[in-house]
């Protein structure tokens, strides 16, 4: 997977939310932003146009960055990205199951507005993935991860799942929430992608390679393994 660097202000290099490429960003001032907005529709904050007679903006409240790869624009209001409204986190892994992907993308869409809610959704996405792997419809997430570990799932993958589980629990469970605690969802997006890479993409690659072996060779391998099982 390509390296992901979360967009931040005033970084000179981050993963562009338009083209998903880690690229240099050219920072523009307010005056240039006004001109660019005239040709870039949709630059609004909470549904209100950022430019116009009633826009209470100064040369310190708004900036634009232009991607050196695709020339796409990102707008920053008080150092928070407001355009495009894509949130944080790398794109979901291409092999992520559709129901897990839906939760992942929902978490992305709100990650800047509500990091705590994004983390809670990532926990739900992890639980959905674990239930799918076990072929179950419900269960305690901690116990489910324990079941996977008992079945031979690599410890590092289980640790990644537990990290998502604990972070999500702290974000939603009474008695654990610390309202002034900084929540950083970006590493958790990366963790979920790693889990999918290890459990789905890599497994699929191995299966595809094994299927590419001639049938006669695969049959001889199965016979070899059957003999070992009997002995």
Q: How would you describe what is shown here?
A:
By secondary structure, the chain is of the alpha+beta class. The protein has two domains: 13-83, no CATH class; 98-211, Four Helix Bundle (Hemerythrin (Met), subunit A), CATH 1.20.120.330. It is 48% helix and 13% strand. The strands form two sheets. A five-stranded antiparallel β-sheet has the order 1-2-5-6-7. Strand 1 (13-15) and strand 2 (22-28) form a beta hairpin. Helix 2 (98-110) packs antiparallel against helix 3. The two termini are 42 Å apart.
For the largest beta-sheet, the strand count, sense and barrel status come to: 5 strands, antiparallel
CATH architecture of the largest domain: Up-down Bundle
β-sheet strand percentage: 5-15%
**Which term fits the overall shape?**
globular
- In helices, the fraction of residues equals 40-55%
Given as residue ranges, the uncertain stretches (5+ residues, pLDDT < 50) are: 51-57, 175-180
Structural features:
Four Helix Bundle (Hemerythrin (Met), subunit A), 2 domains, five-stranded antiparallel β-sheet, 7 helices, 7 strands, globular
């Amino acid at each position: 997977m390509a390296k992901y660097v979360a967009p931040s202000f005033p970084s000179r290099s981050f993963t562009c939310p338009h083209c998903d490429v880690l690229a240099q960003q050219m920072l523009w001032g307010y005056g240039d932003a006004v001109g660019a907005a005239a040709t870039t529709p949709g630059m609004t904050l909470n549904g209100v146009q950022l430019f116009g007679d009633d826009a209470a903006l100064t040369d310190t409240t708004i900036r634009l960055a232009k991607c050196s790869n695709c020339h796409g624009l990102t707008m920053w209001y008080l150092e928070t990205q407001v355009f495009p409204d894509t949130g944080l986190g790398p794109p979901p892994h291409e092999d992520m199951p559709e129901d897990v992907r839906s939760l992942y993308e929902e978490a992305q869409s709100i990650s800047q507005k509500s990091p705590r809610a994004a983390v809670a959704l990532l926990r739900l996405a992890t639980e959905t993935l674990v239930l799918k792997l076990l072929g179950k419809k419900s269960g305690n997430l901690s116990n489910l991860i324990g079941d996977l570990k008992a079945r031979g799932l690599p410890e590092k993958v289980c640790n990644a799942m537990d990290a998502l589980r604990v972070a999500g629990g702290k974000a939603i469970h009474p008695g654990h929430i610390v309202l002034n605690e900084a929540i950083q969802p970006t590493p958790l997006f990366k963790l979920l992608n790693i889990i999918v890479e290890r459990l789905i993409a890599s497994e699929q690659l191995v299966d595809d390679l094994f299927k590419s072996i001639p049938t006669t060779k695969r049959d001889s391998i199965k016979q070899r393994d059957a003999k070992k099982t009997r002995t």
